[in-house]
Specification:
The structure holds 2 protein chains of 2 kinds.
Chain A: E1 2-11, E2 18-28, E3 33-37, H1 44-51, E4 59-64, E5 67-68, H2 74-81, E6 84-88, H3 99-110, H4 114-127, H5 143-156, E7 161-165, H6 173-190, E8 193-198, H7 201-207, E9 210-215, E10 218-224, H8 225-228, H9 235-240, E11 252-260, H10 268-276, E12 281-290, E13 293-303, H11 306-318, E14 322-328
Parallel strand pairs in A: 3-8, 3-9, 6-7, 7-8
Antiparallel strand pairs in A: 1-2, 1-4, 4-5, 9-10, 11-13, 11-14, 12-13
Helix pairs in contact in A: 3-4, 3-5, 4-5, 5-6
Chain B: H1 9-48, H2 62-81, H3 84-90, H4 92-99, H5 105-129, H6 133-141, H7 146-179, H8 188-197, H9 202-231
Helix pairs in contact in B: 1-2, 1-5, 1-7, 1-8, 2-5, 4-5, 5-7, 6-7, 7-9, 8-9
Classes of the chains: A alpha/beta, B mainly alpha.
Chain lengths: 331, 235
Amino acid sequence: MIAITDVTKTFGRADRRVTALDNVSLTVERGEIFGVAGQSGAGKSTLIRTVNLLERPDSGSIEVDGRVLTSLAGAELRSARRGIGMIFQHFNLLTSRTVQGNVELALEIVGVEARERRRRAAEILDLVGLSSKASVYPGQLSGGQKQRVGIARALAAKPSVLLSDEATSALDPETTRSILALLKTINAELGLTVLLITHEMDVVKTICDSAALLEGGRVTETGNLVDLIRTPGSRLARDLFPLGEVHTPAGHTVVDITFSGGLADRPVIAQLARVHGLDVSILGAAVETIGGNQAGRTRLALPGARDDIDRALADLRGQGLLVEVVGGADA
Amino acid sequence: MIDPSAPGFWSDLFEVLLIGTGQTLYMVGVALLVTIIVGLPLGILLVGTEKGGLFSAPFGSRRAGIVINRVLDFVVNLGRSVPFIILMIAVIPFTRLIVGTFIGSTAAIVPLSLVAIPFFARMVEIAIKEVEPGLSEAADSLGATSWQIVRKVLVPEALPSILLGLATTVTSIINFSAMVGTVAGGGLGDVAFRYGYQRYSTIHMVAVIIVIYLIVQALAALAAWGARRLQRQNS
């Protein structure tokens, strides 16, 4: 488990202070995959770097598996870091060592003896599917393979937590998918808690159980994905369903209807037309697998008087659907 | 004036060159060894004691780090600014203290090392600064100590550049080793001075130039080969 409590971090001197993190609090449950999304400059990188104290927060506390890292220093901090693996956007592999050597580095640091190091490195390279590349240098690998080495190195010392700093941002979409699948497998097989930061909502959608949105150094939304998509006005949910900008046809009201859980198969449009006599036009729709469940959001344009529309929408809300008016007369 | 047609000229030349080369290699070799032993840690400390460096706060005090950094920087700059011929004379008391005399090849090793150490330390500093900061960070995230980061990350990663810096350093040590010939340090510089200059033997002069050229080229090629071998994995 990771508990980030009231963490503040500023950079620069007194006259030109930049607040990168402003009273950030987050809880990542044991065994879950937690994604922090946000635009560049939102403080994501700083946030993940405070978790293993690569960046020491100005105030607040970081707790990982019951150890308060912010109260540690020196040998105690180093020993705590060995329980927290980290992977990086640019992989950060040593060019002077082979794939095997890079993985063994983690074990050398911990003080594992040579024969055991070789055995463990081989085992982990097998897990990430790179056994055949053990004696190759990183310069000869593709981006995806390099990240697999990064993952193997991070896992070598058997940490309970994995931090992923934009680990797929330098990879093409297909490679990204394979790396995300690997992270998911590791999470399931080893029971590893994963905290990742990303600017790609696809990453959040594909593997995260929970997510937080970081804007200007503050957490503006956080929660389980299944709950977030049922939350009216959720920015994360809006980003998860890429419906684009709202264009309101004249005399229409535009609404977004979100289906999740068992509600995905409701004949909503037919119902609006038949029961409420509304000539519905579909402006957009997206169906996504979020947190392992199918969920969808449909954007509809409804013509006519606002009163009639409100009645129809109240009916849909009564059935448990999330209905949000996003455009049109006094939206 | 030496007569090249005199009997024994060529065998004398050969013997003089052989002794000179031996002395030069001895001076340069030992000075190089001392340079590596002192210069490498010095270069690492120069980078390490900078702001945000691995040893930026030795003994828990940033002020100590700043002081060490400033002092090292000053010493290195001083060593690099003083012309060799002046340095050589200025350190005579120090040379005497260590070697017992200030004449001869062994004594020459002292000023040669002193001029090469700051030079090499700067090369090491530059090479280490070129190492991607993310690599130290990765080691840091694995719980590495500063010493482990130096030994397992910084030095191995900077090694190709350090090796090339070493080649430049050797060349300048050879350069300066010729100068100690003028103050009874022996070596090929001494041969060129006594035979080529004082006795007008062009053949000696040319021979010395050729031998020195060959030594420098051989060392440069060796260093380039070593650096390439180390970098082959980066391609």
